[in-house]
Please model this.
Amino acid sequence: MTTKKRGLSTRSVQGNKRPQPGPAVEPIVQTSTFIFKDQHEMVNAVQGTSGKHVYTRWSNPTTRNAEEKISSLEGTDDTLLLASGMAAISSTVYGFLKKGNRLLSCDSIYGGTLHLFKEVLPNQGIEVDFHPLDGFADAVENSYGSYDMCYFETPTNPVLGIVDIRRVASAAKATNTVSVIDNTFATPINQRPHELGVDVVIHSATKYLGGHSDVIAGCVSGCDEHIKKVRSAARLLGGTIDPFASFLLDRGIKTLAARMVWHNFNAIFLADKLSQDSRISRIHYPGLPTHPNHSIARRQMSGYGGMIAIDLDANLNMTKDFVDSLEIFLNAVSLGGVESLASIPALTTHYGFSKEELEKTGISESTVRLSVGIEDPEDLLQDIRQALDLSIR
Ligand SMILES: Cc1ncc(COP(=O)(O)O)c(C=O)c1O
Model:
């Protein structure tokens, strides 16, 4: 038996352990409850001493299988799967923070998380401060431990800002602050923040982990002690994932490493080609040497992912025409599936933000977010070029 750590493709397909003889695919244990022989067995299970499943809101074998696979990919002791990325984020916050605690968040984060932090947490006595992406690590360091948690994303949604993970993690450790990252855009194939020192890693598993736009799910990974806290909160908050969704997720993760090769390739191909097109005023992609934090991205990512944002040399109407003229890129929100999608953040994730608020997060009315799928790269390029021809004259 070899002790060498398995590669990421092997871990995507098989996790870290050889399955037990029996079905080659983890069965879908579609049950809410589990039957016990007698009270002795029941009590042992409830106390957690036998490791048996009791009730699917607490744990389920199909879900456990997917959790173990995600832990093997992120390099963490444990993972908790939940019904959505937002359930993962809210359960993490409530697992760690209580009334009177303070959270320092980067201001470039997913819109739903931003709303949770701005509108829900302060009403429950949790103080939230926001800091821009630039200098976020310094802000954590200079807080001298006055925050209980720091929260960030990298690359950020939607304009792919890059935060230095190692710097934030070490500043958080030095100040006794729990560090939490949303690793959705990167995936554990391209970036493993726990190995760089971050305590807790979150995903909207709806995106690349699932990979086929057919499941809503979220996960939280970290050391045993941290995941225990989140698990306790999640049990009561009730954002439980359904066993069938866990099955779909595990099925999706089997091809994660293979899919990411194509996502990474197609995105860098498009970013490079489109950077020569004068109808596009700016390309946001961490793999381009022109990205302001390309050197940090190069240090902490092994691939730059499938997300690109482009600013068109256009007004809002022309930008709408551009997206409506695309034939292969589909007109939809979300990201990370095998099919390419295009959306206008000013009209979707950041709808209702003022022009100034948009500018602060680096978004303009002509920004288009592209989730680059695994179709043929030449087809994708051709699709964007024909849509530019039709919309920008
Ligand atoms: C970066 C990021 N984090 C979290 C979420 C929330 O995930 P979910 O929609 O699965 O709740 C999203 C959703 O788009 C996202 O893009």
